[in-house]
């Protein structure tokens, strides 16, 4: 299997150093190659996740697995500066998506709680929850009604 090597910003293809025997599990393959069998850090969340695996004793190469839906890519990083560069360049995309997803979940949760609490959507302005905005809306409505009346009057006078 062809995998990636990342060194100081340069991507090259390389042969995967991990050895798979028949019926091997991921944990077994990692342990055999000297890695901890769990990720040290996980960036992002389904369906787009990167996991950083460290060798026991924190020796390079570091292994990043990058999964997008059903495909998994392996990226080997052979020193700390390259790892830091990779983290700096590629993890913000994953983390931004994660933050956006989590904010959407929070907004949904908040919206439901608010409706249960107040009996209306949090986007509706009501005199109890948001008296200032409610007053502004009333004033705008009033102004529009007066403009309409003035217009009707002037049309009637023609
Ligand atoms: Zn309300």
Q: Give the biggest beta sheet.
A: 6 strands, mixed
Tell me, what's the shape? Answer: elongated
SS element count, helices: 3
Q: What is the mean predicted local confidence, pLDDT?
A: 92
- SSE arrangement, N to C: EEHEEEEHH
Instruction: Provide the structure class.
Output: alpha+beta
Q: Biggest sheet: strands side by side, in what order?
A: 2-1-6-5-4-3
* End-to-end gap: 85 Å
Structural Rg: 29 Å
Q: How large a portion of the residues is in β-strands, by DSSP E?
A: 15-25%
Number of strands: 6
Number of domain modules = 2
* Bound small molecules, deduplicated: zinc ion
Helix content: 40-55%
Are there runs of 5+ residues with pLDDT below 50, and where?
Answer: none
Architecture overview:
It is a single chain. This protein is α+β, with helices and mostly antiparallel strands and 158 residues long. The protein contains three helices and six strands; from the N terminus they run ββαββββαα. Helix content is 46%, strand content 23%. The model has no long low-confidence stretch (mean pLDDT 92). The protein has a six-stranded mixed sheet, with helices on one face. The chain has two domains: 2-96, no CATH class; 125-158. It has helices at 26-32, 80-118, 131-157, and strands at 2-7, 10-15, 41-45, 48-53, 62-68, 71-77. The radius of gyration is 29 Å and the shape is elongated.
């Amino acid at each position: 299997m062809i995998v990636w090597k990342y060194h100081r910003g340069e991507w090259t293809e390389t042969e995967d150093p991990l050895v798979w025997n028949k019926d091997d599990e991921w944990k077994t393959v990692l342990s055999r190659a000297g890695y901890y069998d769990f990720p040290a850090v996980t960036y992002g969340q389904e369906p787009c996740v990167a996991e950083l695996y460290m060798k026991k004793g924190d020796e390079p190469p570091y292994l990043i697995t990058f999964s997008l839906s059903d495909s998994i890519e392996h990226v080997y990083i052979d020193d700390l500066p390259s790892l830091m560069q990779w983290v700096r360049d590629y993890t913000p995309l994953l983390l931004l998506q994660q933050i956006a997803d989590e904010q959407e979940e929070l907004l949904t949760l908040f919206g439901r709680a608010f409706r249960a609490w107040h009996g209306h959507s949090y986007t509706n302005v009501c005199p109890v929850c948001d008296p200032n905005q409610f007053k502004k809306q009333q004033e705008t409505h009033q102004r529009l009604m007066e403009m309409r009346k003035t217009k009707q009057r002037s049309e009637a006078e023609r």
